[in-house]
Every structure is written in C-alpha cells, then in structure tokens.
C-alpha cells in the first residue's frame, strides 16, 4: 500500500486493479486528511505511513492546499475494463482536484444570458454581437492570405493561355 500511495501522490493518477484501488482509497484518504493540518506532528505521522520525503512534501505543498475546502472524498475510481492476461478488473484511481478535464469545465462555464420576448430583434442581435470575438490577424496569417491571393491572381493568367493553346490545336485539326 505504501508504494501505491507514493505513486498516487506523486503522479496524481495511477492504473491498478479494482481490489487494490479500493484498498488504497482507505489507506490514502486519512493521510490526505492529516495533510490539511501542516504541523510537524502530522508530517511525522504521514511520513511513518509513506516512508518517502518526496511524497510527503508533495502531499503537504501541492495536494493539501487544493483539497483544503473539501470535506472528504479525495479520490475517484474509474473502471477501465479487464486485463487481457488474467481478466482482472482494472481501474484508474486519481486525486479528484487534479483532473484537468473536470476542473477546466467548471472554470470555463460562462454566465448564460436570458432573452426576453419583448424586442426580440434588437436584444438578440445585441447579445450575438457581444459573444462573437474579433479575429486577430498575425503576420503569419497575413502572409498566408497574400500567398493565396497571388495564387488566385496567377490562375486566371494561366487559364487564357491554356484556352488559346486548346483553340490553336482545334484550328490545326480543322485545317487538316
């Protein structure tokens, strides 16, 4: 359990069997609760369970401030299927506050605007113009646009020459 706990604290997410993950949850969560109180006594209690200075410092410096407001439930177990060798049920155990997928969704949530039925044309037009960001042009993007414009300008010049050659070929065939 000590090695699994060290790996979970340092990597924030590990893949293991379901039985080990459930046992690890009961081992790690009391340690995380003790890390909320940053005293020498708590550090020594956690170190006696983990036996790794790196894991203890990671727990007290990075993990504890993020979970300070959370009353419990610091880990999440996600089942991933069965291992092909022995058909053991595999899962992923992770620290809840360190998952970028779930934390980024809640932070990027924007306030929804209410639209009234009165003045349906003017109020919706105003909200639509506010929500669309202006496109910024970079020198690279401007150079690409210039290259595309030059390519378009060259195409029509080449086309009449090709048409005149085709017409010339038709006239030669008619003459024969």
Shape: extended
CA distance, first residue to last residue: 94 Å
Query: How are the strands of the largest sheet arranged?
Result: 1-3-2
Strand content: 5-15%
Order of helices and strands: HEHHHEEHHH
CATH architecture classification of the largest domain: Alpha-Beta Complex
Largest sheet: 3 strands, antiparallel
Q: Using the CA coordinates, give the radius of gyration.
A: 32 Å
CATH level 4 superfamily of the largest domain: Ribosomal protein L17
The DSSP helix count reads 7
Strand elements, count = 3
The domain tally reads 2
Mean pLDDT: 79
CATH topology of the largest domain: 50s Ribosomal Protein L17, Chain: A
Helix fraction?
55-70%
What does this structure look like?
By secondary structure, the protein is mainly α. It has two domains: 2-106, 50s Ribosomal Protein L17, Chain: A (Alpha-Beta Complex); 137-176. The protein has seven helices and three strands; from the N terminus they run αβαααββααα. The protein has helices spanning 2-11, 18-35, 40-50, 53-66, 100-107, 120-131, 139-175, and strands at residues 13-17, 75-82, 89-95. Strands 1-3-2 form a three-stranded antiparallel sheet. Strand 2 and strand 3 (89-95) form a beta hairpin. Helix 1 packs across helix 4 and helix 3 (40-50) packs across helix 4. The longest helix is centred in the C-terminal third of the chain and has 37 residues, at 139-175. The radius of gyration is 32 Å and the shape is extended. The relative contact order is 0.10. Mean pLDDT is 79; it is low at 123-129.
């Amino acid at each position: 359990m000590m090695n699994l706990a060290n790996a979970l604290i340092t990597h924030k997410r590990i893949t293991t069997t379901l039985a080990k993950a459930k046992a690890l949850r009961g081992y790690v969560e009391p340690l995380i609760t003790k890390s909320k109180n940053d005293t020498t006594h708590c550090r020594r209690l956690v170190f006696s369970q983990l036996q790794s200075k790196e894991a203890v410092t990671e727990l007290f410096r990075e993990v504890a401030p993020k979970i300070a407001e959370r009353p419990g439930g610091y880990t999440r177990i996600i089942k991933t299927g069965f291992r092909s060798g022995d058909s053991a049920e595999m899962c992923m155990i992770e620290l809840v506050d360190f998952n970028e997928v779930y934390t980024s969704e809640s932070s990027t949530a924007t306030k929804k605007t209410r639209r009234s039925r009165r003045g349906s044309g003017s109020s919706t037009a105003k909200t639509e113009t506010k929500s669309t960001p202006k496109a910024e042009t970079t020198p690279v993007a401007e150079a690409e646009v210039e290259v595309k414009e030059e390519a378009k300008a060259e195409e029509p010049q080449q086309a009449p020459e090709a048409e005149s050659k085709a017409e010339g070929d038709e006239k030669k065939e008619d003459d024969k």
